[in-house]
Write a structure and sequence with these properties.
The structure holds two protein chains of two kinds.
Chain A (H helix, E strand, L loop, with lengths): L14 H10 L14 H15 L3 H10 L11 H16 L6 H40 L4 H28 L3 H6 L1 H25 L7 E6 L15 H12 L7 E5 H8 L3 H15 L4 H17 L4
Antiparallel strand pairs in A: 1-2
Helix pairs in contact in A: 1-2, 2-4, 4-5, 4-6, 5-6, 5-8
Chain B lengths: L4 H20 L7 H12 L2 H15 L13 H15 L6 H38 L3 H29 L1 H9 L3 H26 L5 H10 L7 H22 L15 H8 L1
Helix pairs in contact in B: 1-2, 1-4, 1-6, 2-3, 2-4, 3-4, 3-5, 3-8, 4-5, 4-6, 4-7, 5-6, 5-8
The chains are: A mainly alpha, B mainly alpha.
Amino acid sequence: MADNANNTKRVAITKGDRIKVWWRSTFIQGSWNYERMQNGGWAFSLVPVLKRLYTTKEDRAAALKRHLEFFNTHPYLASPILGVTMALEEERANGAPIDDVAIQGVKVGMMGPLAGIGDPVFWFTVKPIIGALAASMAIAGNIMGPIIYFLAWNAIRMAFMWYTQEFGYKAGSKITDDLSGGLLQEITKGATILGMFILGALVNRWVSVKFTPIVATVPQSKGAYIDWAHLPSGAAGIRTALEQQAQGRTLSADKVMTLQDNLDTLIPGLAALLLTLFCMWLLKKKVSPIIIILGLFVVGVVLHVLHLM
Amino acid sequence: MQLNFLQIVLVVGVSFLAGMEGILDEFHFHQPIIACTLIGLATGNLLPCLILGGKLEMIALGWANIGAAVAPDAALASVASAIILVLGGQGTAGVNSAIAIAIPLAVAGLLLTTVVRTLATAIVHLMDRSAEEGNFRMIDIWQIVAIIMQGLRIAIPGAMILAVGADRVRALLALMPQWLTDGLGIGGGMVVAVGYAMVINMMATREVWPFFAIGFVLATVKEITLIGLGAIGISLALIYLALSKQGGGASSNGGGASNTGDPVGDIIDNY
């Protein structure tokens, strides 16, 4: 920060103000509207700082008005922009020649690229990973699922918002140079790679498509199944049976192969993959996701009634 | 089951939180895994609601409001289906039919969102007027009013389902034959693909498709947990970034402070 000659009465933003802004920015989307999107929440977030920096009614009115302009970015990535804006407002209140256009320029210049990093990192990487982990626990009836989701998500989010806001405040307007460089693109690319990798795994593990028709009933050779007729009697028989099962013997003499078993020996999860690709194609053809979802329910019911699934 | 007064208040409270978060997207009270579990906790139906939340979360993993694709509304879907599950009194057996009911409600939720976001435009104009007077207090109040509106968006429908009452919800659920609920369960298993497809469509480029393939194949190894897969994925991303930086022309040789002290990168570089 420039050490100007303005020693007499330099107004400064306190850490308390910054904590207040950080907390208020949690509600930045509260008045999201079709006209200027996050503008109300943005002004709401900056209120503690504007209150500190400006004392006359005219200054306050002007400050609020310039922060009620159009604004929209990823809700968490608004934090570094808030930080930079605080720094600029502080300089301006202390007499630096920073006009409305400059402040608006910084906001608009940062919100686009930062939304571009927030979506892949938070919505497509962190959320699917934590969400899938927690959801698989919850489906198994484990209460730790939602608890882990809530704690992990909010710890990551709150820490991210605080540190990027502080970073923005300290870097001031210089941050635009840092972020427009390679770092931003690298983080986005890294998140995209991780996200695609995890999505591949999720498609295989969690999209469930099972075809039930029996394609073959194969009689097995002796020794591949448990020969129930020739077991020792009593507890010894149960023991032998369990031992044989542990060795990998099947329970019945005939091996039943469903269509799904056949597909699985080829490529496990192939049907799930094809279904996902089909959904992607439909979405690209501008079919509404809601139509696809309802359609899949109908398909599920119809195929079940026909005993195909 | 019949709910007592305190339980009704708690359920409406959770609905309100879910409605707020549906727009704020910060604490994630609107995510099925949280909202359904909280409703289960409030009504003493923890286990069925927990499972419902998990299954709905799997479906909703890819739902995010970005770009042109409008995602269904997770808040109304989770709140309404959890309430119906509780009122129906079928326990874990009712989870699949609750999910099937949730999806059309997620669509209805979208309409309500549009209405509230349009109303918020009027609120922002009221903020403009307060700004003219430099009135900070009124800015705060209008912001809070807008958030309350979003909360009511889910709290009111939630209360309406509660008002319909357990008997009528149960009668409705009893009308559903076994083949229908089983079929809906099978459909629910496939619907998960839609969310993933939405996300893949947003991210996929020629460059990152191989990573999808690696993830898909590795997932068949059942011994690798999701956390293990996450570790592999992070490693792959770091390796790829490091390699592409070093391979990107001789001019970038030794460039970037982030490269120093990276033994793996050095070994690969020496080959």
